[in-house]
Design brief:
Layout (H helix, E strand, L loop, with lengths): L1 E10 L8 E16 L4 E6 L13 H8 L4 E7 L9 H16 L6 H16 L7 H6 L2 E5 L2 E5 L4 E7 L5 H6 L7 H20 L2 H7 L5 H6 L5 H10 L4 E4 L6 E4 L5 H14 L4 E7 L5 E3 L1
Helix pairs in contact: 1-2, 1-3, 2-3, 6-7, 9-10
Length: 292
C-alpha cells in the first residue's frame, strides 16, 4: 500500500482566473492505493456520501485509466466537495502521484499535472489545471497552455468556508463572455502585482493584486454575505480578500500573526447573515506528499 496526502487549493486568487493557484497547508485529502486487477474506489470523510465510487464518475478513476494503473483506491476526504477549495483536484492529484509511484511510471510532477487535470474533467467538464497544479507541486502556480510555473512562497492565509454550496458549473455560467479594455488593463496590472508579491513573499502586494473587476463581482452574487465578509476581513487586518476558486469559500491573505483575528471576523460576518461557517488558519503549503 502507498499513501499520499494532497492539499486543498485555492484557484484564481481574484485576478488570475483559470491561471493562478496556490496550495494550502490545510485541509487535505488522504489517498491510499493498492495494485489490483481492476480499479475500485472507496470514499470516506467529509461529504463522502455525495461522491460516486463508480470509477467512470470519479476523478481518481480517470487518473487510473490515464496511467494504465488499476488499483483499489481509498479516499479519505478532508476537503469538502463543492467548497471552492479544490476538493476533486486534491483526490485527483493524490491519485496521480500515488499511482505513478506504485506502478513506477516515471513521470515527473510537472508531467502529472495534465493527467490529474483529466480527472478534474469528470467533475467540471473541462480539464482545468489551476487546482491540480498546486495540489501536486505546492506553492503558487501559474498554468498556461505552455505548461506550469511554480513559485515557492510563505504567506499566512485564511480560508473561510460557509455552509452553502456553489457548483463549479453554476459559477462558470455567470462569468462574463466580454470585458472592457479598462477592466482588461486593470486585471493584467493586478495579476502582475500578485505574481510580484508571491515572488517577494509580500502579503501586501499579493493582497493588492487580488482585486478583480470581472469574474469575482459576477460570482459574488452566488455567495450570501460575501461583501460583508470581505469588509469584516479587511477591518480585521486582511491585506486582500477574494472568492476561492468557484466558491463559496472566501480566501484572505493576512499579515503575520493576524490570521486568528481575520478568521474570527469572517466567521462572525457569515453567521450574522444566518450562515454557519468554518475558518481554516492556513498558509501557502507543500504539494502532494508520499508516505510508505
Amino acid at each position: 500500500m502507498l499513501t499520499v496526502r494532497a492539499p486543498a487549493t485555492s484557484a484564481n486568487l481574484g485576478s488570475g482566473f483559470d491561471v493562478f493557484g496556490v496550495a494550502l497547508d490545510r485541509p487535505a485529502d488522504i489517498v491510499r492505493v493498492e495494485k489490483a486487477e481492476r480499479t475500485t474506489i472507496e470514499v470516506t470523510g467529509v461529504g463522502a456520501r455525495y461522491i460516486p465510487e463508480d470509477p467512470e464518475r470519479n476523478t481518481v478513476g480517470a487518473v487510473a485509466e490515464a496511467l494504465d494503473a488499476p488499483a483499489h483506491i481509498r479516499i479519505d476526504k478532508g476537503v469538502r466537495p463543492a467548497s471552492g477549495l479544490g476538493s476533486s483536484a486534491a483526490s485527483a492529484a493524490a491519485a496521480a502521484v500515488a499511482l505513478n509511484e506504485l506502478y513506477d511510471r516515471g513521470h515527473t510532477r510537472e508531467e502529472l499535472v495534465p493527467v490529474a487535470a483529466e480527472g478534474e474533467a469528470v467533475v467540471s467538464g473541462d480539464a482545468h489545471a489551476d487546482n491540480v497544479a498546486p495540489a501536486i507541486l505546492g506553492g503558487f502556480t501559474v498554468v498556461t497552455d505552455d505548461g506550469v510555473t511554480s513559485v515557492d512562497a510563505d504567506l499566512p492565509l485564511v480560508a473561510c468556508l460557509p455552509d452553502i454550496v456553489v457548483s463549479t458549473r453554476d459559477a462558470r455560467g455567470v462569468v462574463p463572455e466580454r470585458v472592457s479594455m479598462t477592466d482588461l488593463v486593470a486585471t493584467v496590472g493586478n495579476a502582475a502585482t500578485l505574481v510580484a508579491g508571491m515572488a517577494r513573499n509580500d502579503a501586501r502586494l499579493v493582497g493588492r493584486g487580488m482585486d478583480d473587476p470581472v469574474v469575482t463581482p459576477a460570482r459574488a452574487a452566488l455567495i450570501d454575505g460575501y461583501d460583508a465578509v470581505c469588509e469584516a476581513a479587511r477591518e480585521a487586518g486582511a491585506h486582500g480578500v477574494t472568492i476561492s476558486g468557484a466558491g463559496p469559500a472566501v480566501l484572505a491573505v493576512c499579515r503575520p500573526g493576524g490570521r486568528r483575528d481575520v478568521a474570527t471576523a469572517m466567521v462572525d460576518a457569515f453567521e450574522a447573515t444566518g450562515t454557519e461557517a468554518v475558518a481554516y488558519l492556513s498558509r501557502v503549503g507543500e504539494g502532494s506528499t508520499v508516505y510508505r
